[in-house]
Every structure is written in structure tokens, then in C-alpha cells.
Write a structure and sequence with these properties.
single chain, about 100 residues, about 65% helix
């Protein structure tokens, strides 16, 4: 089986990766990077692709999904107020521009 082959994953894992990937793309992450992050999260949570056999299932660990939200803001807090304000204005302009194009 070549690297990157997703046939060993369950339908639920594939749906979860697709959903996570969509979330990253909505936040402006590139397609390939979003896919990489999504599968990394699924692998971390579920232990990779599922193998057949009774009793081989493991409990999912949802910590990797929560981790990202808790990390946010640490970098911004160390930046000067003027820099944060300029960044926020730029982001607002981008959101306004993207909303107008939809």
C-alpha cells in the first residue's frame, strides 16, 4: 500500500478529516496544508487507520482537536498594541473583501 493511501481508514475517519480540512480552509489555510493537518489530527485522535478484528478498537482521544483553540492568542499577546491593531484592521478588510466576492 503506497504512502498516502486512505483505504485503511473508516468512513467516519474520512468524514472527520474532510470536516477538519474544510474548517482550516475556511480560516485561510492552503488546500494541501489543510489536508495534511486534518489527517494528522485524525491519526492522533484515532491511532491511524482501523484494522479489522474483534477487540482491536481503542477509545478516541479528542485532546488534539481542543489543543489548537487553547494555543491561539499566545503569539498575539507578545506583540505591541499598534501591531495587533494594524493586523486586526487588515484582517477586517480581507473579510470584507471576501464577503463582497461571494
Amino acid at each position: 500500500m503506497p504512502r498516502g493511501d486512505k483505504s485503511a481508514y473508516t468512513d467516519k475517519q474520512k468524514r472527520k478529516a474532510e470536516h477538519i480540512e474544510q474548517g482550516y480552509e475556511d480560516r485561510g489555510v492552503g488546500k494541501e496544508e489543510a489536508e495534511r493537518r486534518a489527517w494528522a489530527t485524525v491519526n492522533k485522535e484515532t491511532g491511524g487507520g482501523k484494522k479489522s478484528g474483534s477487540g482491536r478498537g481503542k477509545v478516541e482521544n479528542h485532546a488534539p482537536s481542543r489543543k489548537g483553540g487553547r494555543l491561539g492568542g499566545a503569539a498575539a499577546a507578545s506583540r505591541p498594541a499598534a501591531e495587533r491593531s494594524a493586523s486586526a484592521k487588515k484582517a477586517a478588510a480581507t473579510r470584507k473583501r471576501n464577503a463582497a466576492s461571494k
